[in-house]
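The passage that follows is intended for readers who have already worked through the single-chain material. We present the inputs for a multi-component assembly, then the predicted structure in tokenized form, and finally a short commentary. You are encouraged to pause after the input and sketch how you expect the pieces to fit together before reading on.
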Amino acid sequence: MIDFGFQKAKSSTVNLDNVDMRLYYALAEKEPDIKRCMECGSCTAACTSGPFNGMSLRQVIHGLQRGTDVRQMVSGCMLCGKCSMVCPRGINTRHLLLTISRIYTK
Amino acid sequence: MIADRIANGFSPFVIPFLLGMAFVIGYCIVGMVRIFLQLPGEDRKKFLVSLITPATIWKNVRDLFLDCLFHVKLWKRKALLGYMHSSIAFGWFMLIVLGHIEVALFLPHRLKTFYYPIFFNYFVAEEGRTLKGSVFFFLMDFFLLVVLSGIILAMIKRIRSRWFGMRRTTKLTAVDTIGLYSLWLIFPLRLLAEGFTAHISGGSFLTMPVNWVVQHVFSSPGFFDNNLHMLPTWWAYSIDLAVFMCVLPFSRYMHIPAEMMLIPLRNAGLKIRNARKGFAKAEVYSCPSCGVCIDACPMTVKKANVNYSTVYLNRQIRRGNEEKIEEIADKCLMCGKCSTVCQIGVQGPELRVAQRAVRKYAVPGDFSSVNTVPLTLSAGQGTGNVAYFAGCMTALTPGISRGVESLLKKSGVDYKFLDRDGGLCCGRPMLLAGRLKEANQIMAKNREIILSSGCDTLLVSCPICYKVFKENYDLEAAGVKVVHHSVYFESLASSGKLRIEHDLLNLVFHDPCELGRGSGIYEQPRNLLALAGNLVGAAQEKQMSICCGGSLGSLTLNFQQREDLTRNALKNLCADVPDIIVTACPLCRSTLRRYADRPVLDIAEVVDRFAVTGGLERSA
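Having made your guess, compare it with the prediction:
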């Protein structure tokens, strides 16, 4: 192959048919609030832990919708509750995080 | 003279009473031993030592009289409510005590029988009038009248609870209802039974007229020649006592014996370590279901939330209804108002935290990756003995830290700002969620940062941080004094380092739960505000202040449900039409501001507006 000095970008397509959403659906049943999230990122902007360990509730919710493992990020939450103070959708984010911590089987 | 009327001193009607009494005493002894065994070894030792310490013995005796018999806390709340409870408790107690004294004085050889003091009038005959006898008969009738008046008030309270200062009362369970009616019946039956025998045993102003009435009602010739006819009333009295004692352990009346156990445990300084065992169990069983906590709970502005008050938590814990217990434990705001009004001191928030701590989380919190080095480094820089920790919540309301910094500069204090560029959470929200291990991790990291600053005063803006720094960080031992900014600026103002100009604005102070009920700071913020403006009152304030509704204590209350609580808190604060609502907590400030129709400011912001630079320098 001729080297043009650049490459084609890797596809960023997400095939939702192949995503394992079971955890997200199980969560949505317990916390219907999560469906109201519009991923504006206010929670992440306000987060106390974020600057120290990369915690981001927006990424957690996004990860659950894409079937990725979010356990490590969730474990960094300090439950300070600032995310629920700033959420424009009025989601009880603290309880959402506690439920996510409980929903994994092990 | 008073003498035995029945030669062998026995009648079969005492059997129900004896059985009931044996059951209750057996049940209580087993319960007490179980609670004692459930205490951790360290607490057990503490408890036993307290039982032989003179100071605690005196405190126990005093509390037993003031709390169990006189219900002092209820008297302070509402005299009629206090009278209702104490008349029944103290009156009944006196009837039992006087009964024993009577037996000891007149028939000392019968003291070993259990039932003589209770059924004294049945077993004796008055052979000659004596002053001593009359005095005792008078006293017995007097205290019976006291109890009866209390029972009549209790009946009225069922229909008109507002006359007793209670908007809502507890819903009774079926067993409670049986207990209630059998308790109400005990004393009229006693009056009737004693009325039937008063012409033989003697009586006073209450029993004698009853005797006269029954003699006339049952006036068949020779009716009273035969003493057997008085037996039905004595049987009824004894059976009713037995019914009451048999339902006692399963009803709210369990508080009568349980409180006698709770008071020494409490005075020994024990804390709740397990939501279901030991001290917590003593508290739960001591709950008389009086329902005072229902009106106190800020969540009950919505009718649906009545079921989440502490009285129902106690009931569900006794029933072992796990689903309901979890629900109630998670909903609470942890404002602590129920503990403040509770006459026996059930610690609602502590019970709930212990309950939350039982829960297992599949994903544990892990803060080992949190790098505190930059924070400790910046904390170590600069001079200044005062370290200012604004708290993470203050980051959402930067006006507070601006106000504090400005005031510190005005009063010439050399300080360093520990979390100007963000800091860790204090760990109390985690603690309130019952995740103690995670909270300890956060607290250890924060403690390291605070100590590396080398300060001797830690100035805090957030009452949530203040409480946890004071109680869980053990900073005083390391030579660091924790002080909330409202207290700090008050001391600066009173020592003249900060001069504040008075304005004519009307200010109302909202007590944050963690600062007021949580840490007992009520006066200093008010003194400080009185310098800046005209302090007006709220409808309910200080110990009775209403939570703003934003509390991190509640896990499950959602945004919409909190709105009603906030609006109710605002209504309470605006009773005297203030110009500005002042608080001392970033969380209260954000929450109240959401629905307020007038400015909501922190005390530092308000004072900063009126503070004049360098009071001392100016005068010098």
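Commentary: Residues 615-620 of chain B have pLDDT under 50 and may be disordered. The interface with chain A takes residues 330, 359-367, 369-371, 392-393, 395-396, 422-425, 427, 429-430, 433, 435, 442, 550, 552, 555-560, 587, 590-591 of chain B (CB under 8 Å). How closely did your sketch match?
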